[in-house]
Amino acid sequence: MSALTADILAEKSQAIERHLARVAARLPAAPGDLQSASDASDAVVLHLWQATQIVVDLAVAACVELKLGAPAAYADAFRRLEAAGVLEAALADRLVRAAGFRNVVAHAYETLDMARVFRAARKGPHDLRAFLAALIARLRSDRQT
Predict the structure, then answer these.
(1) 3-31 confidence digits (pLDDT tens)
(2) 109-115: long-range contacts at Cβ-Cβ below 8 A with a sequence spacing of 24 or more?
(3) Rounded to whole angstroms, how far apart are CA atoms 100 and 52?
(4) At residue 110, does pLDDT exceed 80?
(5) 48, 1, 11, 20: which is closest to 136 by C-alpha?
């Protein structure tokens, strides 16, 4: 049985949307209003990190599912999906940067650049959703053949 079933993708998509809704709810209107070590920044960083982590996990699982090999690093998962035609190059580039953001959050919270967090919180959700759409489309296409 496939590791990436429709039910699993639906569950993961809902989880991502819940996290992104929390990001949107806590993100201030202006970059300068997102202050380090505040309740808003903690919520934005935590939920953006969690949504990104789910996407990274799905990318790694998709590489295995599509027999693209096991990625050596998170960024490598997106590059493999790009090479296989699952992701457009520009989206893969942005997702590689999202994986880098995830690593910075996971390993060095105290050094986060709040301007970068703000940009990621504004632009990143679109890329995470685009990844889901591309993955779902590819898996549906593969299962119909």
Answers:
(1) 788 899 999 999 999 999 999 999 999 99
(2) 109/45, 112/36, 112/45, 114/31, 114/34, 114/35, 114/36, 114/41, 115/31
(3) 10
(4) no
(5) 11
- The owner of tokens 């295995």 is 64
Here the tokens at position 107 are 């390993």
Q: What is the pLDDT of residue 1?
A: 37
* Domains of the chain, first to last: 6-144 (1.20.120.580)
Q: How far apart are the C-alpha atoms of 66 and 81, rounded to whole Å?
A: 9
Distance CA 83, CA 85 (A): 5
Mention every residue, 6+ apart, whose C-beta is less than 8 A from residue 65: 2, 3, 4, 139
